[in-house]
TrEMBL record:
Organism: Desulfosporosinus lacus DSM 15449
Cofactor: Ca(2+)
Function recorded in the entry: May play the central regulatory role in sporulation. It may be an element of the effector pathway responsible for the activation of sporulation genes in response to nutritional stress. Spo0A may act in concert with spo0H (a sigma factor) to control the expression of some genes that are critical to the sporulation process.
Annotated Response regulatory domain residues: 6-124
InterPro entries: Bact_response_regulator, CheY-like_superfamily, Sig_transdc_resp-reg_C-effctor, Sig_transdc_resp-reg_receiver, Spo0A_C, Spore_0_A, WH-like_DNA-bd_sf
Annotated protein name in UniProt: Stage 0 sporulation protein A homolog
Cofactor note: Binds 1 Ca(2+) ion per subunit.
Modified-residue entries (4-aspartylphosphate), positions: D57
């Protein structure tokens, strides 16, 4: 039996930590070796447990995620763990700083637990068994480039049909392009209003504000007319779909991440 992937969970939301711990412990190849609710606790666990991967919240008390990253980067004699950073919409400037500090992957709250576990496996499958990483700047930022094994245009169209977004509304085309752009460059999630919407608006000769409204309208239509089972399958882990609709950014991020996982598998 192969060695289990050692994980530390660090987030000040205790309910989220408990949910993550319960889910990850139920996976045969994953083991949670520590849970922290602030940055100082996280740093102590990192030193004592030497995890393969850390699920790290960006904003925490005592020592934030950036501070934890700086301390990890200061070590030169120990293998550097992979870092999945949990972020929320509106934290763009902090996310950019985290990218510069060597985060391996960002995941926007709320998120799908199945996608998280797949991302954990894809990030850790090539962890060396020896040879510490002496250069923290060499850690890759995941800006996904998809292979030729998956026709993304077909896949994203299929997913949108399953969700129930009508093809005749303008937001349909905006969402499709937004998802494909984020699949290619995940950093766009940190610049939705400054880069993503304007790029789509330029293509369709419209205003960024109309792109935002068109996407919002399409999501609302999906929630009104869509297939409940499909919505639960895609969004059910992270929200009550009967009471809560995702924001534009959450919707785009989650579907883009599903496509990235699919392209990795293919």
């Amino acid at each position: 039996m192969s060695k289990k992937i050692k994980i530390i969970v660090a987030d000040d939301n205790r309910n989220l930590c408990q949910m993550l711990q319960n889910y990850l412990q139920g996976q045969e190849d994953l083991i949670v070796v520590g849970v922290a609710n602030n940055g100082l606790e996280a740093w102590e666990l990192i030193q004592s447990q030497e995890p393969d991967l850390i699920i790290l919240d960006l904003v925490m008390p005592n020592l934030d995620g950036l501070g934890v990253l700086e301390r990890i980067n200061s070590r030169t004699t120990i293998n550097r763990p992979k870092i999945i950073m949990l972020t929320a919409f509106g934290q763009e400037s902090l996310t950019h700083q985290a990218m510069m500090l060597g985060v391996d992957y960002f995941i926007l709250k709320p998120f799908d637990l199945d996608i998280l576990s797949k991302r954990i496996r894809s990030l850790t499958q090539d962890i060396p068994s020896s040879q510490p990483n002496h250069n923290s700047s060499a850690s890759p930022i995941v800006v996904s480039t998809v292979g030729s094994g998956l026709n993304l245009c077909v896949e994203v169209t299929t997913m949108m049909h399953q969700i129930g977004i009508p093809a005749h509304v303008k937001g349909y085309q905006y969402i499709r392009d937004a998802i494909l752009m984020v699949v290619e460059d995940v950093s766009l999630l940190g610049a939705v209003t400054k880069e993503l919407y304007p790029s789509i608006a330029k293509k369709f000769d419209t205003a960024p504000s109309r792109v935002e409204r068109g996407i919002r309208h399409a999501i609302e239509l999906a929630w009104e007319r869509g297939h409940t089972d499909t919505l639960k399958r895609i969004f059910g882990y992270s929200m009550n779909i009967e009471r809560q609709k995702p924001t534009n950014s959450e919707f785009i991020a989650l579907l883009a991440d599903k496509l990235r996982v699919m392209s990795k598998v293919s």
